[in-house]
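As a warm-up, study this chain.
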Amino acid sequence: SINRPRIFIAGPLNPHKGGGAIEYLRNCSRMIEAARDLIKAGYAPFCPAVDAAYFIGGMYDETPTADEIKSYSASWVGACAAILLMPGWEKSGGALAEMEIAGRLNIPVFKNAGDLYRYFNQPE
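Now compare it with the structure written out below.
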């Protein structure tokens, strides 16, 4: 179906407290796993973890800046039917900003996939 509900996945990507590349990759992996689950369950996720691909290759001046990526990513919140939070979202400045946008637009925010699935399977 082309009418899959769009879900914005929000959560930490950048490491906290010296977690470095390993923490970043774990955060990406967790977010990508959530996106795979959402796709299989009939949703259309927006997964910021794949933004890493935009930093690979190209010359320095062709690579988007962190601010450009944050702005591009946040612009997708309003196109989504809901936000799904990843563990550790409380420490993510990006996730908190995305939740604030969702609040202004009355977009529901879910802390786990089970609640999100129940919300979308409610009778109209």
